[in-house]
Amino acid sequence: MASLIDRYGRRFPYLRLSVIEACNFRCSYCLPKGYQARPDLPRHLGVDEIRRLLTGFARLGMRKVRLTGGEPSLRRDLTDIIGVAAAVPGVEKIALTTNGVLLPQRIDDWRAAGLSHLNVSVDALDRARFAEITGHDRLPHILDGIERALALGLSAVKLNAVLLRGLNDDQLPAFLDYLRDRPISLRFIELMQTGDNLEYFRRHHYRAEALEDALQTEGWGLLPRAADAGPAREYAHPDYRGRIGIIAPYSRDFCAGCNRLRVTSSGDLRLCLFGNVGIPLRPLLQDEDQADELQAALISQLGLKALGHGLHEGQTGLTPHLASIGG
Fold first, then answer.
1. Which fold has domain 14-324?
2. Is the whole-model pTM more than 0.70?
3. How far apart are CA 273 and CA 309, in angstroms?
4. pLDDT tens digits, one per residue of 156-184
5. Are strands 233-236 and 221-222 parallel, antiparallel or unpaired?
6. Does residue 105 surpass a pLDDT of 60?
7. How far is the C-alpha of 219 from the C-alpha of 109, rounded, in Å?
């Protein structure tokens, strides 16, 4: 049976699907001037197109789908999309990455529709610092939503924080205190250079290895990597319920653990976050009879996936900013 496997033997059971490019935050590392609508951008995929897309991927071995943006909660039909994803045969995990602004109002509905995994972007636990980074003073509201998500018993609740020198690199004590009694995984993500952030990158890039050294000094131990794990290196401490994951795209072996593919909100397949080519899948999502053609296209394109990205050489590909493809 055909499956999602590339010429280097890597399997891809994980799909990151952007459902909208727009975002309502102004994060300094992504959209410091806010989202600017692009009149040339095709409309995002509809619910039926998403169902056909996920069905095609699932028939080839995709088992986890993460809904991203932009900010996915800006789609009024997000609950319907979650329900459609949960109904696709073979899909076992439905994840969502969000800035959390609508969590208190929507998390119950999302959970009832089938959401199993949640990631919330929280770049600082100091309210003023959070507002400085994101452009919005909404931290207490977002933290309330996270507590509600924990109470609902999702399979996993994670926090994402982009490492930023001079902006949140002093927040580790606060983050550790937050993890002490909460079963949360906190993912620190090394800032990546994109098409429009070179000056910012040079000013605020913080090497993930420096944080790992600090964690090990504090008694955090590196856990063995699971066979199906992605690129994050995960640490645990006997005194904390939570864990810490480090996503270090500039580390030497980062791409060896790649297990995910990406599709943009308008239906372009991206074999790599920083790839140079987008393969339009939307023409193959218009009718149920196109299922075989879609699967053949996915297998064919996966054979072209490169061994690694070109970030070390400053090659950022088609990604102008992370909101354009959901990270």
1. TIM Barrel (3.20.20)
2. yes
3. 8
4. 999 999 999 999 999 999 999 999 999 99
5. antiparallel
6. yes
7. 39
